[in-house]
Write a structure and sequence with these properties.
Layout: E1 21-28, E2 34-41, H1 44-53, E3 57-63, H2 78-93, H3 98-108, H4 112-126, H5 131-135, H6 144-156, H7 159-214, H8 222-258, H9 260-272, H10 276-297, H11 302-310, H12 316-330, H13 335-342, H14 347-359, H15 362-418
Antiparallel strand pairs: 1-2, 1-3
Helix pairs in contact: 2-3, 2-7, 3-4, 6-7, 7-8, 7-10, 7-15, 9-10, 10-11, 10-15, 11-12, 12-13, 13-14, 14-15
Length: about 425
């Protein structure tokens, strides 16, 4: 809720089945000063009644206009949930009641979807639900890990501490994912642009050279003839190539999403790729260690925690390994022994877990493991960026430069003959 003056205080909580909607209003106060603002309410009449109660004479009250291209707003991203968790933790530690905290957060969001989500959670809590029950109605935004941590925090009476832990956890995980995406985005985009430039040259530039070559009346060099033939194919069948590439990408994406075996195979292949595979290994270990530490610290039983953690590793190979660890721990194996049996974690991780279990400080030791491997990922990403730059330049030189040389070879040959 935003107003031009601090006239609005608190929205009335109307108990009805109608859905809250945003309204904009204009009016005058007792001194005749024009005012305007925005308020969530069930109906325009409720907005008018609230304005009159506060000494404002409403002139215009109407539903807020929807954006031209839809009112859904941008999608809710993990970083939005991380920011929400940080805001909740800060306000609850400052003594702000949970309903008031949700009202403040909801009114401050510019994303309509996030605003609606927070308002819905607040309404459910006002109706008597716990925070865990309220967020459980939104599993796409609040995953199983988040819900279980909130449930554990509410049960132990340390909800604000758990929210702070969740916020720190999500910020670290999103930062880690962001670094990896940033490292891979640049080379992928450069390669795509290079291929796009090559396609444009084959479709539009090479045919112009081909007309010139016909006037030579001489046989073209093999490399130049190959480029000319490729150009002819592209000009004639570009639409078929687009259909084939688009269909292949769509088919692969659908198969990957639906087939667990394919996901496992692809993730295993990625782990074996030089440099990138090492980054993915370290990233999965860091996410496993931090997530396990957070859940264990929040009071979630270890067997249940491992079941939740499995999906948070970001890799099917590690996910299946953690699920096997859960099964071993459930029949009495120590975590370090179960970790050793899956034969995927480095010796250092197994030893540090063993020390943490013996000292009764498993969560503390796993946090240290997470910090170490997150730093390893950061270093590897920086090294990857430095390594890829010269490789990308070589790729562009070979693809684009090779094509340019191929087009000028007949001209060089003609010049030599004339000379």
């Amino acid at each position: 809720m935003s107003v031009s003056r601090s006239a609005m205080k608190k929205e009335p909580v109307a108990r009805s089945t109608m859905e809250m909607a945003p309204f904009v209003w204009e009016g005058t106060d007792k001194r005749g000063v024009k005012m305007k603002g925005e308020q969530m309410a069930k109906s325009a009449n409720l907005v008018k009644a609230e304005l009159r109660r506060q000494g404002i004479t409403p002139k215009v009250v109407k539903p807020k206009a929807k954006p031209l291209f839809g009112s859904a707003g941008s999608t809710i991203k993990p970083k939005d949930i991380a920011f929400f968790s940080r805001q909740m933790a800060t306000m609850m530690k400052s003594g702000v009641p949970i309903v008031a905290a949700l009202e403040i957060i909801g009114s401050g969001h510019k994303n309509p979807r996030m605003k609606k989500l927070v308002d819905t959670v607040r309404t459910d809590i006002e109706g008597g639900s716990s925070l865990h029950e309220a967020i459980s109605k939104h599993p796409l935004q609040f995953d199983e890990l988040y819900r279980n941590l909130i449930r554990a925090g509410e049960g132990a009476g340390v909800l604000e501490t758990v929210l702070e832990t969740i916020a720190s956890y999500k910020e670290n995980i999103e930062g880690l994912k962001g670094k990896i995406k940033k490292a891979l985005f640049y080379p992928v985009m450069v390669i795509v642009v290079a291929l796009l430039v090559s396609a444009i040259m084959l479709v539009f530039v090479v045919p112009q050279f081909e007309d010139v070559f016909r006037g030579f009346g001489a046989e073209l060099p093999a490399f130049t003839q190959f480029i000319v033939n490729l150009s002819r194919f592209m000009v004639s069948w570009w639409w078929l190539m687009l259909i084939v590439i688009g269909g292949a990408v769509a088919g692969f994406t659908m198969a990957y999403k639906r087939s667990s075996k394919m996901q496992h195979a692809m993730d295993r292949i990625i782990l074996k790729v030089p440099v990138i595979g090492n980054i993915m290994h370290n990233s999965s270990i860091a996410r496993f260690a931090r997530t396990t530490a957070v859940t264990f610290k929040a009071g979630v039983p270890l067997v249940e925690a491992l079941g939740i953690v499995a999906g948070a590793t970001g890799n099917k190979v590690y996910e299946e390994a953690v699920l096997r660890m859960r099964d071993d721990v459930s029949v009495g194996y120590p975590v370090n022994m179960a970790m050793k049996q899956v034969n995927i974690f480095p010796h250092m991780v197994v030893q540090m877990t063993n020390i943490g279990e013996e000292a009764g400080a498993l969560d503390t030791m796993l946090f240290k493991v997470a910090e170490y491997f997150e730093q390893e990922v950061n270093n590897a990403v920086d090294a990857l960026s430095s390594l890829l730059e010269p490789m990308i330049m070589v790729f562009i030189g070979v693809v684009v430069g090779g094509m340019v040389i191929g087009m000028y070879l007949p001209i060089f040959k003609l010049g030599a003959v004339v000379g």
